[in-house]
């Protein structure tokens, strides 16, 4: 065979992605040249370098390195340090180091090559410009984006001046500069360049030239970064169809296009479409490249992502473990791709509630990144942020905050206050503040993030809408429910218009708005949205998808709020059985479902059933999470509530003291959950007639909430109401009345005349009037409450029936026995008609007391939806 023809055939095979054929040809040429020309002939060394490239294409980087080192050392000895062939060999070796994640070694070589070429060839020689571009790539790999951009601007300007606007090298440098702008979050600048490159190449080379397709793919990536997923998908479909037709179904470029399109489908929530493409790519790469080629492993990782999006976490875990093991063996424990696989596996562990396993992996990734890349490398900062999320899952919020603050400060210093990564780190820190009840700090950060996102990205960019939704969540925590609703409505409308009615993000917004409605007592509106979300998720994701199960649980809470307890129980049982089957008995979501079902039992007065479940959840959480994990303390509190309802007040008090002491020590005296525990302990004291002890705690909680949350925060008003109840029990009726009037007026003004909390305040004030013998005033309030409940909840709702009993009691106090008897007979008839519904007993002359079930602790968020699932 003519050796030059062999080289050309090998080159063509490589261009077609036939790397094993290319390797065979290059090996044949190399062996022939060795035999004919000797080991160190220039042509022999060129063949060695070609074979090294072939190894690189197959991910066999250690073999490539061995040849590249040999070529470089030989050329240096024979030709000298500054010979063009030596510099080329140095550049090739740097490329191999980059593939191995040895970026500092690559940088050292590329700086040397650049300096030599500048000195020998001049600042603007094409080889010098190529070296500048290569060094820029190394800077990018190390997160030195401003350094990379500076070099790429210089290359672009020189190419434009020397070669003209439309020279391939100029267009290539323009595209590279666009990548740098993308890394810096300057997406509009990147888009402007990408559009120009695409239009120019299409005009010069035609719509179907490989370079045109590459530029289309780059532009699609920029659209993706900006959340323009429809535009991105249209381009990627076009690229894929053209690649299939011109290059064949299994050409590497076709497979890359397929994988890119799958990524865009994922962003659009088209997870089954994404999975179908990823499976096709993986099967083709396995067959063509082998099980352990880097591209095959990348496809396995991408398919694992598709499985995760669909809640198929065990399938995702199986793939991610396989990828990690292969990368460890092939690349080493600390290669960047190995560390990335460890992080991906940690995410899968987190999804399955294996938080200690996730944290262990993330600590390892963080330590390795810090040692190998330095404290301020983007990958190190990313791993630090991921570790903070693991700490949050474990309830280690101060540790999470420390890391989040460090990440935020570092990124702000390196990239500027308005870089997308800076905004993301601000959002993460805000979330950690939220977890610790530092809502004012969280809101301040989230407002800043939202304003910046609006200005830089536009009102409807996905990141802007996410920021809006996050701020709405914080407003909810602050009791600013109308503000939260306004934001959620805006997000929902934008997502409907941009993404469609049934995109996962649209459904999530619907779910969040339902949560806002629930907070404001608009339970029918909440129910309507929850049903809509549930039906869509069932149809799109399947009955057993985690998001579908979350929707079922959310709808159950809506039913509970409306007193439809048997409906709620039916849903909670279904969710629990599904989670047991899919996730196992002790997965956090399974325990959450058990807890929710216990609350359904409590709502129906099935205290023993509730107690049994709460004990089971508590024991599991103690064993899995530790005695003092926030979820364990939540379970302890819930069990105490069940004891309280069964009159086991000393048992309830003992648990409440333990929870309070733990929260004081772990969270501080004034954390919202500590104050909540104080409130609950005060109720335990009240149950046991220790009114003074209860009063002391209620005053302490009220003062703290006034100072921390403001006079009119819902939690502050609840504390006022609870203190009034304590005064009432001690016969301090005027003090109780004064507080109750204050609470009622505030709730009327803030929540409206017919909000459930407003009606509860009216009911409580009526009780105060009743005890003072002011029966006509008590009657007026009770009638108002009853009429509102009839209209809002229906004649047969348990709360309506309680109000009827309360009014009957007032009639009896005024010797209006026939009217009282008519009301009690009506209540009895309704109860007989609804024998399936069990209503928790309460004295007819008292309103629903506001202890543990009025001021319920902050419910735990579902892993998918920021809607309450776990009562605490």
Automatic annotation (TrEMBL):
Q: Which InterPro entries match?
A: NLR-like, TPR-like_helical_dom_sf, TPR_rpt
Report the domain of life of the source organism.
Eukaryota
Look up the coiled coil feature and give its residue ranges.
none
Mind telling me what this protein is named? Kinesin light chain
């Amino acid at each position: 065979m003519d050796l030059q023809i062999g080289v050309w055939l090998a080159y063509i095979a490589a261009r077609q992605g036939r790397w094993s054929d290319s390797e065979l040809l290059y090996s044949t040429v190399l062996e022939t040249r060795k035999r004919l020309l000797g080991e160190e002939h220039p042509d022999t060394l060129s063949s060695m370098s070609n074979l090294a490239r072939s190894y690189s294409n197959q991910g066999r980087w250690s073999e490539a390195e061995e040849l590249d080192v040999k070529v470089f050392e030989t050329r240096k000895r024979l030709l000298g340090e500054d010979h063009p062939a030596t510099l080329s060999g140095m550049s090739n070796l740097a490329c191999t180091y980059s593939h191995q994640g040895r970026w500092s070694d690559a940088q050292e070589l590329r700086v040397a090559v650049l300096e030599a070429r500048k000195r020998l060839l001049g600042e603007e020689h094409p080889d010098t410009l190529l070296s500048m571009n290569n060094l820029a790539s190394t800077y990018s790999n190390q997160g030195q984006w401003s350094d990379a951009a500076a070099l790429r601007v210089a290359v672009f300007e020189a190419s434009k001046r020397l070669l003209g606007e439309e020279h391939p090298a100029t267009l290539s440098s323009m595209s590279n500069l666009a990548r740098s702008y993308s890394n810096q979050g300057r997406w509009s600048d990147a888009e402007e360049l990408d559009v120009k490159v695409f239009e120019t190449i299409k005009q010069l080379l035609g719509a179907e030239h490989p370079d045109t397709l590459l530029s289309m793919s780059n532009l699609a990536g920029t659209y993706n970064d900006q959340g323009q997923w429809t535009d991105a998908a249209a381009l990627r479909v076009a690229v894929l169809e053209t690649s299939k037709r011109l290059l064949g179904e299994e050409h590497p470029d076709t497979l890359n296009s397929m994988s890119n399109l799958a990524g865009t489908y994922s962003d659009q929530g088209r997870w089954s479409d994404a999975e179908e493409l990823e499976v096709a790519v993986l099967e083709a790469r396995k067959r063509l490249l082998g099980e352990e080629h880097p591209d095959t492993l990348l496809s396995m990782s991408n398919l694992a992502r598709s499985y995760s999006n669909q809640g198929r976490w065990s399938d995702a875990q199986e793939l991610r473990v396989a990828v990690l093991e292969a990368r460890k063996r092939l690349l080493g424990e600390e290669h960047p791709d190995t560390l990335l696989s460890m992080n991906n596996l940690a995410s899968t562990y987190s999804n399955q509630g294996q938080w200690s396993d996730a944290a262990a992996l993330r600590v390892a990734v963080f330590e390795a990144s810090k040692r190998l890349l330095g404290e301020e490398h983007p990958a190190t900062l990313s791993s630090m942020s991921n570790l903070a999320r693991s700490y949050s899952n474990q309830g280690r919020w101060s540790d999470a905050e420390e890391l989040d603050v460090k990440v935020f400060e570092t990124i702000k210093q390196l990239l500027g206050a308005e870089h997308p990564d800076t905004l993301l780190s601000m959002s993460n820190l805000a979330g950690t503040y939220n977890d610790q009840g530092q809502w004012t700090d969280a809101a301040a950060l989230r407002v800043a993030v939202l304003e910046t996102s609006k200005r830089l990205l536009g009102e409807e960019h996905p990141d802007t809408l996410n920021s809006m939704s996050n701020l709405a969540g914080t407003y909810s925590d602050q009791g600013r429910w109308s503000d939260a609703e306004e934001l959620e409505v805006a997000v929902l409308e934008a997502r409907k218009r941009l993404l469609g009615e049934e995109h996962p993000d649209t459904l999530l917004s619907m779910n969040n708005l339902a949560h806002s409605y629930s907070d404001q007592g608009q339970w029918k509106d909440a129910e309507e949205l929850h049903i809509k979300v549930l039906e869509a998720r069932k149809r799109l994701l399947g009955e057993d998808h985690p998001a579908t199960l979350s929707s079922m649980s959310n709808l159950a809470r809506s039913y509970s709020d409306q007193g439809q307890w048997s409906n709620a129980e039916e849903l909670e049982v279904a969710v629990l059985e599904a989670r047991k089957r899919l996730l196992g008995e002790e997965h956090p979501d399974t325990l959450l479902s058990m807890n929710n079902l216990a609350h359904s039992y409590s709502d129906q007065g099935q205290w023993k059933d509730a107690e049994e479940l709460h004990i089971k959840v508590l024991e599991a959480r103690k064993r899995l999470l530790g005695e003092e994990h926030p979820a364990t303390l939540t379970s302890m509190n819930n069990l105490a509530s069940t004891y309280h309802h069964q009159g086991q007040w000393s048992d309830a008090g003992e648990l409440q003291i333990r929870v309070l002491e733990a929260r004081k020590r772990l969270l501080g005296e004034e954390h919202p959950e500590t104050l909540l525990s104080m409130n609950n302990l005060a109720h335990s004291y009240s149950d046991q007639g220790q009114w003074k002890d209860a009063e002391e705690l209620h005053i302490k909680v009220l003062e703290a909430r006034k100072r921390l949350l403001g006079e009119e925060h819902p939690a502050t008003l609840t504390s006022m109401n609870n203190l009034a109840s304590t005064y009432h029990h001690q016969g301090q009726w005027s003090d109780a009345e004064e507080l109750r009037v204050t609470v009622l007026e505030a709730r009327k003004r803030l929540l409206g005349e017919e909000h459930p909390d407003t009606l509860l305040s009216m009911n409580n004030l009526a009780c105060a009037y009743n005890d003072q013998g002011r029966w006509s005033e008590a009657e007026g309030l009770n009638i108002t409450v009853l009429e509102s409940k009839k209209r809002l909840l229906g004649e047969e709702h348990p709360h309506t029936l309680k109000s009827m009993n309360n009014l009957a009691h007032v009639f009896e106090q005024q010797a209006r026995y026939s009217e009282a008897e008519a009301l009690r007979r009506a209540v009895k008839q309704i109860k007989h008609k609804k024998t399936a519904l069990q209503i928790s007993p309460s004295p007819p002359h008292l309103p629903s007391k506001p202890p543990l079930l009025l001021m319920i602790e902050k419910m735990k968020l579902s892993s998918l939806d920021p809607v309450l699932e776990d009562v605490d």
